[in-house]
């Protein structure tokens, strides 16, 4: 089990009624920058769920592929309206999501967020490695 996987598995499960983890693909060592950044992204996403989502279930999926690592964090919480532009995250006081976007950018990755009021939220990142 590599460092990123260990970090994900060590996240506290007692603050969301149900927190599930799924890890797939062949695990491999990532750069220390990528490992810490991915861990911080997951940590911030779960922090947002605990503070805002009123979720009963959250899931963290970590997928290793030959050329990339992808992470999906989703919940069944209250959701929200996703701003149309990045500036909308900042002006809408969604600073945790803005921080996630910036961290993904540092790794030259992609960041997709899907949410709607009453339907939960999913955050997907994909990083080449």
Question: What's the helix and strand layout?
Answer:
Elements: H1 3-9, E1 18-24, H2 32-53, E2 57-64, E3 68-75, H3 86-91, H4 95-106, E4 110-115, E5 121-128
Parallel strand pairs: 1-2
Antiparallel strand pairs: 2-3, 3-5, 4-5
Helix pairs in contact: 1-2, 2-4
Task: Give a brief rundown of this model.
With 129 residues, this protein is an alpha+beta fold. Helices cover 36% and strands 29% of the residues.
The sequence of SSEs as H and E is HEHEEHHEE
CATH topology call = Heat Shock Protein 90
Beta content comes to 25-35%
Give the CATH H-level superfamily. Histidine kinase-like ATPase, C-terminal domain
The tally of domains stands at: 1
Main sheet characteristics = 5 strands, mixed
Architecture overview:
Helix 2 (32-53) runs antiparallel to helix 4. This protein has helices at 3-9, 32-53, 86-91, 95-106, and strands at 18-24, 57-64, 68-75, 110-115, 121-128. The longest helix is centred in the N-terminal third of the chain and has 22 residues, at 32-53. Helices cover 36% and strands 29% of the residues. The protein has a single domain (3-9, 16-128), classed as Histidine kinase-like ATPase, C-terminal domain (Heat Shock Protein 90, 2-Layer Sandwich). The model has no long low-confidence stretch (mean pLDDT 86). The radius of gyration is 14 Å and the shape is globular. A hairpin with a 5-residue loop joins strand 4 and strand 5 (121-128). The two termini are 17 Å apart. It has 4 helices and 5 strands. The chain has a 5-stranded mixed sheet with strand order 1-2-3-5-4, with helices on one face.
């Amino acid at each position: 089990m590599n460092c990123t996987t260990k970090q994900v598995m060590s996240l506290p499960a007692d603050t969301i009624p149900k927190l599930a983890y799924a890890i797939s693909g062949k695990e491999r060592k990532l750069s220390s920058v990528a490992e810490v950044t991915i861990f911080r992204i997951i940590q911030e996403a779960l922090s947002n769920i605990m503070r805002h989502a009123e979720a009963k279930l959250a899931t963290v999926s970590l997928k290793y592929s030959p050329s990339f690592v992808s992470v999906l964090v989703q919940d069944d919480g209250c959701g929200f309206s996703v701003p149309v532009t990045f500036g909308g995250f900042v002006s809408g006081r969604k600073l945790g999501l803005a921080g996630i976007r910036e961290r993904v950018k540092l790794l030259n990755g992609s960041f997709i967020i899907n949410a709607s009021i009453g339907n939960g939220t999913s955050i997907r990142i994909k990083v080449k490695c």
